[in-house]
Write a structure and sequence with these properties.
The protein has helices at 2-31, 144-147, 176-183, 220-225, 241-250, and strands at residues 35-41, 49-58, 63-67, 82-87, 94-104, 109-114, 135-140, 152-163, 187-191, 203-206, 212-217, 236-240. The chain is α+β, with helices and mostly antiparallel strands.
Length: 255
């Protein structure tokens, strides 16, 4: 009798757990072709490609979203350096040159445009802020400069929605960046999943639908929120997609 109960429980578990796991596997498989690397291509040097962060495809398949701080600040024309979008993974990755369409210093977001064959685009969620406890995932290139162009998926939950700036305890702890944020505060997601350098610009998406809920921001938000902390907590943040909607609308880009 005991063995029969164990068998029945095992069957029951397979029926109700496996579909959920299979569903997420399918979501990740669908997301991966939309995930790209952002960096610099130098055809006259070795290595030719330097990966700075992650991006993802939206709209008609020619627009790429990433963090503004991921973009290269200087490029050497004498070496024929160009900003690049890396498509695919590993040694089979291809390079496409990209143009900057728009950037936002406030939200640390950037829109790039590539030419050629359009890439599979991710769907953006609506402007609603998702509640704490919502299951999320993100796929990108953690420590990509070392580990290479191999997309990695992390999952977790939205732990909290918090303001971009937490007031400093004393005036001496306030820096210029914090002052700017205090004039234009907005909410960001705080996650219990760990992102690493290279994940910046990754799409944070709903584990069930694959819709983009936000954009991972490991550096920019943390440096503002945790500026008064001598030992940063390592918490991962994401910019809600509602702010990306705003920038896309300002630039007449349909998503």
């Amino acid at each position: 009798m005991f063995k029969k109960i164990v068998i029945l429980l095992s069957v029951f578990s397979l029926l109700y757990i496996t579909p959920a796991k299979a569903e997420f596997v399918d979501v990740v498989a669908k997301i991966k072709p939309s995930v790209v690397g952002i960096g610099i291509h130098t055809p006259t040097s070795r290595p030719q490609n330097i990966l700075r962060g992650t991006g993802f495809v939206v709209g008609n398949g020619h627009y790429i979203i990433t963090n503004a701080h991921v973009l290269p600040t200087e490029m050497d024309d004498s070496l024929l350096q160009k900003m690049a979008v890396f498509i695919g993974s590993g040694k089979n990755a291809k390079v496409r040159h990209a143009d900057i369409i728009a950037t936002s210093d406030l939200y640390d977001l950037a829109i790039l445009k590539i030419s050629g064959t359009p890439l599979p685009a991710m769907n953006l969620a609506d402007n609603k802020i998702r509640p704490d406890g919502s299951y999320i995932a993100f796929t990108g290139f953690p420590i990509g400069a070392i580990l290479g162009l191999y997309p990695v998926t992390h999952r977790g939950i939205i732990a909290s929605t918090t303001p971009t700036v937490i007031p400093a305890q004393t005036a001496g702890q306030i820096n210029l960046k914090m002052l700017k944020r205090m004039r234009n505060p907005y909410s960001v997601y705080q996650l219990d999943a760990t992102a690493y350098p290279g994940n910046s610009g990754s799409a944070m998406y709903d584990m069930k639908t694959g819709e983009v809920l936000g954009i991972i921001n490991k550096v920019f938000v943390q440096s503002t929120k945790e500026a008064v902390i001598s030992n940063p907590s390592g918490i991962t943040y994401a910019i809600p997609v509602k702010y990306l909607h705003k920038i896309l609308k300002e630039n007449n880009i349909k998503w």
